[in-house]
């Protein structure tokens, strides 16, 4: 029996708050294995970490960059100053990339503009992620696809047409594409999650890997998404949900990361195969608890056993009711006390 292996992406985004060291600490958090306290095994941690890179010259209009941004989560007086504070430069992204690799993680990068492609002079991410807002940014999709690096897209703001248009642009260059069901509401209300979209994507976009990017509070939706067939899960991660920053409160802290990874890895082991069979490890329970054909009365040696002489009792290591023809009409070799299992050795 083969286990599934859901590809788990820890989305840092800009929860690093402009600090390489915080980014590294989050990587340390998501890379650690999980101890299975019930069965004693070690469960694999997350598979990848994701950062976001913006080119502020290609981000917002001048008026939006200059607008006042004075709130508890602001890192600058204007929105432009706030965004600039949160940006890591190419060299800092490379430093975070190397740390992720040292921890055995793959590195996924969201590049929000063609100007961000300068980063590729320093290193090659394992995958590129297209943010939901850029699924309709077809020139950006074309530029990313031209790199031939595998691409993950999120559908948070998209319908079928927007998704199909994006796929058409990307697959002109390569077909190593993953599609994540997503809802761009922060946090996402349960009534809007619509996990059945995963089934729709699996049926209608079967050439691609299908997953789920989650913005709900808690861990139930990602776990349920895996049960629905998602092969990739992306979830925002932070060191402390009380940290300054707009994404922190809606992210998973250390305990949430532990619980989500644990539950998904256990679910990976649990999915199994699409058939029914007797699991080898149930043998002990089957022998102890299942019922076998037993004597309903004291049967003397030499007596012929009839159906009226038998019923079913535990343990389950004897003959089953469907095998009663092996007993009925046979002679007891020895005395068989009432309410004892009638084994083959007792009849002839």
Describe how the helices and strands are arranged:
Elements: E1 7-13, H1 20-31, E2 34-35, E3 42-43, E4 48-53, H2 62-66, H3 79-86, H4 90-102, E5 106-111, E6 127-130, H5 138-146, E7 151-154, H6 160-170, E8 177-182, H7 190-193, H8 196-204, E9 209-214, H9 220-227, E10 232-236, H10 254-271, H11 283-289, E11 292-295, E12 310-313
Parallel strand pairs: 1-4, 1-10, 4-5, 5-6, 6-7, 7-8, 8-9, 9-10
Antiparallel strand pairs: 2-3, 11-12
Helix pairs in contact: 1-4, 5-6, 9-10
Overall residue-averaged pLDDT value: 93
What is the CATH architecture annotation of the largest domain?
Answer: Alpha-Beta Barrel
Query: Which of globular, elongated, flat, extended, rod-shaped describes the shape?
Result: elongated
Q: CATH topology of the largest domain, which one?
A: TIM Barrel
With strands numbered from the N-terminus, the spatial order across the biggest sheet is 1-4-5-6-7-8-9-10
Oligomer category = single chain
Give the number of domains.
2
Radius of gyration over all CA atoms, rounded: 30 Å
Query: Helix/strand/pairing class, anyone?
Result: alpha/beta
* Name of the CATH class of the largest domain: Alpha Beta
> Low-confidence parts lasting 5 or more residues at pLDDT below 50?
none
The percentage helix is 25-40%
Number of helical runs?
A: 11
Give the N-to-C terminal Cα separation.
40 Å
The CATH superfamily name of the largest domain is Aldolase class I
Tell me the fraction of residues in β-strands, as a range.
15-25%
Largest sheet: 8 strands, parallel, barrel
Number of E-type strands:
12
H/E element sequence: EHEEEHHHEEHEHEHHEHEHHEE
